[in-house]
Amino acid sequence: MSKIEIYTTPTCPYCHAAKALLSDKGVDYTEITVLDPDLRAAMTERAHGRRTVPQIFIGETHVGGYDDMAALDRQGGLDPLLAD
């Protein structure tokens, strides 16, 4: 199974939705809270300039935010990515 990392903030509703979707899939993930400016800067660089949370990475693939991950799931592309 691919390593999953999700960059979040505590009060972000999209972050909570993304974590719930991953939990519903039964997968473990590492949550990185970006309240620290250095962590947010690292996330922004890794996410090719995207500054909003959540930013989700599955293995080496930058999935994007919650809307991106939910769309990928609806298209049937999330489960194969999680299984790699």
TrEMBL record:
Family matches, as SUPFAM superfamilies: Thioredoxin-like
InterPro entries given in the database record: GLR_AS, Glutaredoxin, Glutaredoxin_subgr, GRX_bact, Thioredoxin-like_sf
Keyword Transcription regulation applies: no
UniProt domain Glutaredoxin: residue ranges: 4-63
One Pfam family hit: Glutaredoxin
Keywords from the named record: Cytoplasm, Disulfide bond, Electron transport, Redox-active center, Transport
Record CDD domains: GRX_GRXb_1_3_like
Family according to the record: Belongs to the glutaredoxin family.
Function text: Has a glutathione-disulfide oxidoreductase activity in the presence of NADPH and glutathione reductase. Reduces low molecular weight disulfides and proteins.
NCBIfam families: GRX_bact
Protein name: Glutaredoxin
Organism: Devosia neptuniae
Lineage: Bacteria, Pseudomonadati, Pseudomonadota, Alphaproteobacteria, Hyphomicrobiales
